[in-house]
Amino acid sequence: MTDILISGASIAGTSAAYWLRRHGFTVTVVERAPAVRQGGYKVDIRGAALRVVERMGLMDAVRARGTGMRVATHYDAAGRPVATMDADLFGGRTGDDAEIMRGDLNELLYGLTRDEVEYVFDDSITAIADDGTVTFERSRPRRFDLVIGADGVHSNVRRLAFGEERRYLRHLGHYISICSVPDPLGLDREEAVHAAPGRTANVYSTRQDHGVAKAAFIWSAPPLATGHRDVERQKELVAEAMSGMGWQVPRLLDDMRKADDFYFDAICQIRMDRWSRGRAVLLGDAAYCASPASGQGTSLAIVGAYVLAGELAAGRGPEGYERELRAFAEANQALAEPNLKGMVVPSRLALWFQLRMIRLLPHLPGRDRMIERVAGPIHRAANAITLKDYLDG
Q1: Residue 172 and residue 95: Cα distance in Å, rounded?
Q2: How confident is the model at residue 39 (pLDDT cuts 50, 70, 90)?
Q3: What's the confidence (pLDDT) of residue 94?
Q4: What pLDDT score was predicted for residue 206?
Q5: For residue 369, is pLDDT > 70?
Q6: Distances in Å between the alpha carbon of 132 and those of 104, 122, 155, 328?
Q7: CA pair distance 110, 119, nearest whole angstrom
Q8: Which helix (H) or strand (E) holds 345?
């Protein structure tokens, strides 16, 4: 096995391209977008993923581009601050955990690979034959030894190799939308949050932002009827879900309607009995999406890419990759539903209790135990794998 095609030039795909090249494979990456995707929201790198990033020689660059977030403040409907907490605790970060904008991380990973990996943009796979011949929307057919689907929760490779996604998608009863907006509060590395029963609005500005913020809307809802690319309908659904909320939410919704980097999706997971079939193997969200609620999607992609490349190089193939990674993936998927209970609170009483605990936390004698309850499960899941040193045999 020497020639490998990766579908998707995001975190999982670019990470896999790096490690596969280190092991001597010939790598091609095909990406539907016209260039490596910029922008996006902030993401965390924790536990085992930190060690992989260190082995890539990127840790200093990641730290230099860190978000620098300082504090998270909850506001009531009238705009009064009602509770404040440290940004790391708000994000469940401990120790050396790093936070970076998704686009910045992808740019760093692309920079490591662009001179040694063939990137084919503005194209997509249409079929994968048993003999490894791959046909594309635009390019001529080519033959590969293996096709890696690193193309996200709505993976095209998964559909081609395994069938329709409804067989593998587990809806977690919530939706999320994120976009760039003019900073409404003059935020300085701050999160600003307003919550109501069943829905939460969050706006934040990082160290790199200048008058621009990210607005995030999360709410509980059953599966909604909308196409993945029907942006106007999706914006309508966000506005309907957030209708009647106070604080800055009406202004944020007005700005959302004009945003050109709008993201919308169900908070969901991908659960599969196996991640490979024939010439195809799945990586990252395509195989084991843990959902944004887990806080571990990026770390799963980075660690998964490292393990997949290493197991292929060791001759153990996709089967070895599954054996090494499955327990780690499942441990991180298990974070999502408990985390959602804190992200979207179901009742006014529960919301009152949450805000009161945030206000009291700095003064409680059991503060460290309370912090462990928040960050401990994430930390344990992030470290729930022993990484092999594949390059040293």
Answers
A1: 29
A2: confident
A3: 74
A4: 87
A5: no
A6: 33, 21, 18, 30
A7: 10
A8: none
Is the alpha carbon torsion for 344, 349, 354, 355 positive or negative? positive
Going from the C-alpha of 325 to that of each of 1, 69, 384, 385, the distances in angstroms are 21, 31, 10, 8
- Amino acid symbol at 380: R
Among 302, 281, 259, CA closest to 10: 302
DSSP letters, 46-77, are: -THHHHHHHHTT-HHHHHHTB----EEEEE-T
**pLDDT tier at 208, thresholds 50, 70, 90:** low
Rounded distance, CA 109 to CA 250, Å?
37
Contact assessment for residue 150 and residue 10, using Cβ atoms and an 8 Å cutoff: yes
User: How far is Cα 202 from Cα 204, in angstroms, rounded to an integer?
Assistant: 7
| H or E element at residue 204 | strand 199-205
Is residue 145 exposed (0-12), middle (13-18) or buried (19+ Cβ within 10 Å)?
A: middle
* Pairwise CA distance, residues 215 & 219, whole Å: 13
Contacts of 292 (CB under 8 A, 6+ apart): 176, 267
Measured in Å, how far apart are the chain's first and last C-alpha atoms? 18
CA separation, residue 372 to residues 12, 93, 94, 338 (Å): 29, 11, 10, 14
At how many degrees (to 10) do helices 317-333 and 297-313 cross? 160
Distance CA 292, CA 279 (A): 29
Strands 212-220 and 169-182: antiparallel
pLDDT value, residue 1: 64
Question: In 3D, which of 266, 265, 239, 267 has the Cα closest to residue 252?
Answer: 239
User: What's the pTM value of the predicted model, to 2 decimals?
Assistant: 0.94
**Amino acid identity, residue 303?**
V
291: burial class by Cβ within 10 Å (0-12, 13-18, 19+)?
buried
Q: The tokens of 383 are what?
A: 């470290």
Determine the Cα–Cα distance for residues 354 and 86; give it in Å rounded to an integer.
Answer: 15
Q: Tokens 């979207």 correspond to what residue?
A: 344
Please give the structure tokens belonging to residue 208. 């790199």
Rounded CA separation 167/289 (Å): 14
Render pLDDT for 77-102 as a digit per residue (tens, 0 to 9): 999 999 888 877 777 777 789 999 99
- Give the start-end residues of each E strand in 212-311: 212-220, 263-270, 276-277, 280-282
What pLDDT score was predicted for residue 266? 95
8 Å CB contact between 184 and 251 = yes
